[in-house]
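Worked problem 6 (solution included).
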Amino acid sequence: MELDKTDLAILRYLQEDGRINNSDLADKIFLSASSCLRRVRALEEAGVISSYCAVLDADSVGLEVDAFVQVTMRRDIEQWHENFSKEIQHWPEVVGSFIITGEANYLLRVRARNLKHYSTFIMDRLYKTSGVLDIRSNIVLQTLKDTHVIDSALLKSTD
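Solution. The predicted structure is:
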């Protein structure tokens, strides 16, 4: 889908406030409510807007540990990728998972209540997963920037 300046404005406002009502959104981008609603629905149907959600403050809900974990797999285990990919879907501690370049195969973002919870996850789940060869953890000491907002300066516009 090609995005114009109006689409980019819609996306910017929806990323700032996913609960904004259509009438207020239309006012902000100088469109009629019906035109605005048509554009939002088109963005949703095209998959540009994939979902709406509430972003929780991890500290406020008791998740003190935030860690990035590099996982290297043994390649001599049959279907190691498929099995690992299925396994991590059942682990609530894993809030992000990525296939990466470099020595490791995966980068996981793990959230835990405390260091004991994190340690139990690493020792009792991750290390015991078939095919796992090596794990390297980086525990976040301080977050400088963490956002899901995609700035419109990165997006291609048809205007």
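Discussion: Residues 72 and 105 are 5 Å apart (CA to CA).
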